[in-house]
Known about the structure:
Low-confidence stretches: 1-13, 15-36
Number of domains: 1
Mean pLDDT: 84
Distance between the termini: 28 Å
Number of strands: 10
Shape: globular
CATH topology: Glutaredoxin
Amino acid sequence: MIRRPSSTVGFALIASALLGAPRESMAHDPASPTAAPEAQRRQVHAVFNDFSLTDQAGRPFRFQTLRGKVVLLTFLYTTCSDVCPLLTANMRALQQSLTPRERQDVYFVSVTTDPEVDTPSVLKSYADRYKVDFSDWSFLTGDQRSLEPVWKMFGVKVERVARGLINHTTLTALIDSKGVMRLVYLDAAPDPKRMLADVRGLLGQQ
């Protein structure tokens, strides 16, 4: 289940950010030129009401339950051999950098772009390879019909090339405790230190 975002202006800002991004914002394109770090970090303002998917344990997951927390949300697929492992490793590094107190107010979300392959058990096995702590991180899947509105809501384009091979927009979203998306990172490997500073900046506003 997914409701429309309550801010059409937010959609316009996301679209503007993505359209202005270099081709490197599309995953699995190693030949793309590298942009300056600041060109890959965009301020946006979009409010999302809710969506429901399934986590790595097979349990229902509602985005609405994260209100009150700062959320880092990204998109991946488990058979990816280049961009997605970098994103996951960076998110794991960020998770480990937070203090125990900060982790009470921060949550990580990874949404698959390949529901055909990425069942809950496959996502769990993938996350286990990175020694992910699931206490504040969920890996989400669902059927195509459930996932497509989520991809669209975040401005993520998904193109299936073959089974287990997906081209998708590289995007990590930083969402504040009120459910407002404040920043998007379009880099294949966002700087964990910069992301940590951004997360702490939002925590300081709570």
